Amino acid sequence: MTAAAQPPAADQPPAAGPPSRAEQAQGWRAPGQDAGWLNPLHERFLLRLLVRKELRVRYRGSMLGMLWSYVKPAVQFIVFYIALGVFLELNKGTPAYAVYLFSGIVVINLFGEVFGNATRSITGNAPLVSKIYLPSQLFPWSSMIVALVHFVPQLLVLVVGALLFGWLPSPTALVAFGLGMLILLVFTMGLGMLAAALNAAFRDVENFVDLLVMVATWLSPVLYRITMVQEAIGGTIWWWLYQLNPLTIVVELFHVAFWRYSPEVVEGVAQDPSLMAPGEPFGLWWAGLLIAGATFVLGTVVFERSTRRFAQEL
User: Which residue ranges does UniProt annotate as crossing the membrane (predicted)?
Assistant: First the structure.
């Protein structure tokens, strides 16, 4: 009998192969096989561990801890309110300008944190990505959940501020808020996964993302009314591109949810109809949803095709 035909020794383990049907029925799978973009749903326990890890690492040695979720937006609001509301007198032409301003700030803060954290999620967890097997999709999704944890205190402050100006929850406000959150998270996660895949190969991407967040703050109606933009470039291709910006759509949805129907604003619109944004109450929400969905699909496809190269690139 030749060596090639000899049976394996009794003390040698059988060669590794694909899992049998019995093993598959028990939930076993071969190493490296996962559920792809559905991993955040299938690996919820690991996702919770990553979220806890990110929160602990971020506030390790910090005296204020989660209070930074209040400090940063508070400083932003004060600076913008004084510079634009007082010095440029935008508060005189915009009823309840404080609520208008802060409802846009919370959108940009959530966009910036999800986008930035997701972009750095692979490179920031390089020891885990390169040394052990973990579904790579968990890292950007855990970054999004951490950003939502920081978003909740800001949202509570916004709700309290809106209530002080006479705002009351309504079905219109709830629908606008839900649409805004859906478009924002889907769009930002698509961008975040795309940027995370590119950042693993080219570290310049994270610097570009920081620049993009700063530009987005001024290219969305956060600090000024959208009617001002319409007066300046209305009827041109730039006006339509401005309106199709998903962040513009989300910010306007937040304005509808928390600012538009407060008594002071309703009275101001009765005296000056130009305060009403075009397309209210929900504007181009359908376009924002389509663009967000397309961005999410693109980001997911690019991320999935890049996962096997992450360990080598890091």
Answer: 70-90, 97-118, 138-167, 174-202, 208-227, 239-262, 282-303
